[in-house]
């Protein structure tokens, strides 16, 4: 195996590891929390802009759920727990 093939192999391994560690945080519609509360929570906890948070809120309201953040499970878990404590309904998937 020459150096180029080795680098490609290492890059592929790194890509596979990173891909396996990507999870999705979903916001589930609950018909309880106000739009303003959800928008503010998404901006504060997920780092969304106002427009992005509003879009996610509308998608959740109309479709029943929306993927609001992707990343490592441990990072998403901390955000999800905070959202759950605020009364929002969320779930994490692979």
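^ Assign residues to that structure.
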């Amino acid at each position: 195996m020459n150096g180029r093939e080795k680098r490609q192999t290492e890059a592929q391994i790194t890509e596979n590891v990173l891909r396996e560690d990507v999870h999705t945080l979903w916001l589930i519609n609950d018909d309880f929390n106000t739009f303003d509360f959800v928008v503010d929570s998404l901006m504060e906890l997920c780092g969304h802009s106002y427009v992005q948070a509003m879009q996610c809120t509308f998608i959740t309201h109309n479709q029943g759920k929306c993927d609001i953040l992707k990343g490592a499970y441990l990072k998403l878990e901390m955000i999800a727990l905070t959202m759950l404590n605020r009364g929002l309904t969320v779930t994490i998937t692979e």
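The longest strand covers residues 65-71.
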